[in-house]
Specification:
- The chain is α/β, with parallel strands linked by helices.
- It is built from 23 helices and 16 strands.
- It has a six-stranded mixed sheet, with helices on both faces. The chain has a five-stranded parallel sheet with strand order 9-6-7-8-16, with helices on both faces. Strands 2-1-3 form a three-stranded antiparallel sheet.
- The mean pLDDT is about 95.
- It binds pyridoxal-5'-phosphate.
- Pyridoxal-5'-phosphate binds next to helix 13.
- The site of pyridoxal-5'-phosphate has 16 residues, from helix 13.
Length: about 500
């Protein structure tokens, strides 16, 4: 299977190259030229497999320049019970709200307690092998812009991985105290962390600019290094996410929640559009998904886009209690548009250029109409988010984080508006303990809030009885290693000096 750029279909690469390079030279994103199609027999086989078995099947169909042994080694070392708490790294929790069943796909049992671990525990394995195949002997410099969770998950995934260095940028006021503490205490010889005075989009734009500045790349090349990306623009991030939708479907069938072949809906709290895109790709492979329900917080640029076909990032930016979704430029939407236009690289490039230039574009009526049929967009503000956490906990003793609550809230809107009760998988993307303050205020609005982050964690634990994930509990005693804060314009200098080639 080969991959090409969304902005230049004649830029064709192998899967190893797509992963090693991260982003195409023209600024486009790599996409598979076609999707493997799974029929009844394939899904029946997958029903009998465990998570790793399902992952191996999907990976081997997309990464055709990897041997079966390589894929097996990558999968086996990534999804261990030791790292994810059980043999199934992505278990379903069955609960309900006001009588409506919720099938919650808990994707946060990994080492950093957010769904990013699902991809970032395996990406370093895929990337180091890809580098070996395509440019042996060079060190990869991983630049990450994070809205909170990617940074920590990438640091943890790449720490002390040979022939890699990783530098993470996060918005100084745009992540939760726990997320900040997770990143600033990161261990490892090859890691670096820097806050920027700006929001996530500034960080992401800065990283993209560094990637595409030829003189910086040349400087790296002189020093036997090259850039790569662990952001969800990297194909190696998206592919692992396809697996858990397929696996969740199999689990629903095996658990007797749906019959084999029944359609499902998916509900995804969305930021950069990677997670929901992975579910869309699973549907292209034959997974029967009826509706893609795209949940946003007050940064509801996607809600408006799905309703009107106009993507307009010229709007107020809100810092919310679901910071991993505080994003106005959802990079992976580019891949959806490419697919929905029948792989039209010129149209995709024109829209992305308009986004860069005017901050705005409008898709064609055809694309609008397909999006309207397949997608539903909705959003919840912070007040609604906390109300949802409260109701779910009060009614069912199920505690969810702020991002998951946005998804649950939008799902309720969807059911109310459409009456559609197709069984739905709701992606739960983080542990509530990563956002203890907001979750604590939601379940106990009247208490006096403790002062420190870890007192809030303890209080939440005391009130709910939900165990604190060990990786978060263990942070209490760690001291910060990183404290740099810079202007977005100075990111490039930070990178060069961190690499010792400034
Ligand atoms: C990254 C993240 C999201 C958004 O996922 P995208 O793939 O960027 O749409 C949602 N919730 C949490 C907790 C996250 O870390």
């Amino acid at each position: 299977m080969l991959y090409n750029s969304t902005q230049n279909a004649s830029e064709i690469v192998s899967s190893a190259q797509a992963i090693a390079q991260g982003i195409s030279k023209d600024g486009g994103l790599f996409v598979p030229q076609e999707f493997p199609k799974y029929g009844e027999a394939d899904f029946k086989t997958l029903l009998g497999e465990d998570y790793k078995g399902r992952a191996k099947k999907v990976f081997s169909d997309f990464l055709t320049d990897f041997s079966a042994e390589e894929i097996e080694a990558c999968v086996d070392s990534a999804y261990t019970a030791e790292k994810f708490g059980s043999e199934n790294p992505a278990p379903l929790a069955y609960t309900k709200l006001d009588g409506v069943p919720l099938n919650i796909l808990e994707l946060w049992h990994g080492p950093t307690c957010a769904f990013k671990d699902m991809a970032l525990q395996i990406l370093p394995h895929l990337l180091t092998r890809s580098l070996k195949k395509t440019c042996d002997g060079k060190d990869a410099v991983i630049l990450v812009a994070t809205s909170g969770d990617t940074g920590k998950a990438a640091l943890e995934g790449f720490k002390d991985v040979e022939h890699t260095k990783i530098i993470v940028f996060y918005p100084v006021n745009g992540v939760s105290p726990m997320q900040k503490h997770q990143m600033n205490t990161q261990e490892g010889k090859n890691v670096n962390v820097c806050a920027i005075k700006g929001n996530f989009d500034d960080a992401q734009t800065g990283v993209k600019r560094i990637f595409t500045t030829p003189e910086i790349s040349e400087k790296l090349a002189e020093n036997n290094m090259l850039f790569s990306s662990a952001n969800s623009i990297n194909w190696g991030r998206l592919l692992p996410q396809i697996v858990y939708y397929i696996s969740a479907y199999c689990d629903l069938v095996n658990d007797g929640k749906i019959a084999f072949g029944d359609p499902i809906n998916v509900v995804v709290p969305t930021g950069n559009f990677g997670n929901i895109l992975a579910s869309y790709y699973a549907s292209l492979m034959g997974l029967p998904i009826k509706k893609f329900i795209c949940a946003s917080n007050s940064n509801n640029v996607l809600t408006d886009f799905i309703k009107t076909g106009v993507y307009d990032k010229n709007r107020q930016f809100y810092t919310t209690m679901s910071p991993s979704m505080d994003i106005l430029v959802s990079s992976n939407l580019e891949r959806l548009l490419y697919n929905l236009t029948g792989n039209d690289d010129k149209a995709t490039r024109a829209w992305m250029n308009a986004l860069k230039g005017e901050g705005k574009y409008e898709v064609t009526d055809e694309v609008k109409s397909v999006i309207g049929k397949k997608f539903y967009g909705g959003f919840c503000d912070d007040r609604q988010t906390q109300a949802t956490i409260n109701r779910l906990f009060t009614q069912e003793s199920y505690l969810c984080d702020t991002h998951t609550a946005v998804a649950v809230g939008v799902y309720e809107q969807y059911v109310r508006e459409t009456g559609d009760l197709t069984p739905s998988v709701i992606a739960s993307t983080a542990s509530p303990y990563k956002f203890s303050k907001a979750v604590l205020e939601a379940v106990a609005p009247d208490i006096d809030l403790p002062e420190t982050e870890f007192e809030m964690v303890d209080k939440l634990n005391e009130l709910t009885g939900m165990p604190v994930p060990a990786p978060l509990a263990g942070l209490k005693d760690k001291t910060a290693r990183f404290s740099a804060v810079t202007e977005p314009d100075a990111m490039r200098e930070f990178v060069l000096s961190a690499l010792g080639i400034g």
